[in-house]
Amino acid sequence: MKVIVSEHVGFCFGVERAVKKAERMLDNRGLSNYSVGPLIHNPQTIEKLTEKGLRIVNRIEQIKNGRLIIRAHGLRPELLSKARAKNIEVVDSTCPFVKKVQEASCRLVKQGYAVIIAGDKNHPEVKSIGGFTDEKAMVAAGPSDLDKLNLNKSRKIALLAQTTQSNSNFQAIINKLVSKGHFEELRIFNTICRATVVRQREARSIAQKVEMMIIMGGRLSANTKRLAGICKEAGVETHHVEAAKDIKPSWFRKKRSIGLAGGTSTPAWVIKQAADRLKKVYTDDHRRGKLTAHSL
Ligand code: F3S
Fold first, then answer.
1. Which of 43, 196, 257, 271 could form a disulfide with 9 if both were Cys (CB 3.0 to 4.6 A apart)?
2. Is the pTM of this model over 0.70?
3. Which of 61, 125, 184, 233 is catalytic?
């Protein structure tokens, strides 16, 4: 059995930065450290951080005499103001690429553009961007959502992307928007993060060469879900799992080639554990004579 592991695994720049900042704060005894919502979308990392003392809350009001570490996806500005009004120390771990989308959306709204974000309206990153535009930014998850937006009176339109958006969906939204064509000006900002693009490209390429893909990463991680979606679109059996122990031997017993990839918030050690598990089950099966010529 051949296992092809994606070249780019482990934390992206923004996640690594947020986790390192949090670890520094947690090592620095004194104030209690809080994040509103999980700092990143990876359960294993969150478990380690909470063991070290990070407290995850849903509301600023739950923070008592502590320090707020802003998650990599960013925080809505009114929550930030609330924290500052309560004299809560703030450590900003918003990924700089997310920050760029927040600032650009805010500026474009002020310049009179109807701003559309290609993304998931319930994702914390998109919610934070909405906050920076006083809820004026509209959100389209896919091309069909454009029909639901009130764009008829908009002469100037600006389209931006959630950083973990797929190129193909963004392109489909652009095509549909252009075909509507009732506006005078359309500005397109490709704000899809490069780390996301590289991993999507690699996952697609591996998916075309193997019989099954395993995508490792948090269930809530948008970019991990997107990777799994891309592999399914490529027509290959795909499983999205959070931990190596969730990989079922029955999935791959008769497979000759398996691809392994992970989201930008999946630690490299989780991928290593998954590769080790595949190897171990395969070797054990081999010893017990469970493998047939076909499975080899
Ligand atoms: Fe930032 Fe891109 Fe990672 S937006 S959090 S570097 S996926």
1. 271
2. yes
3. 125
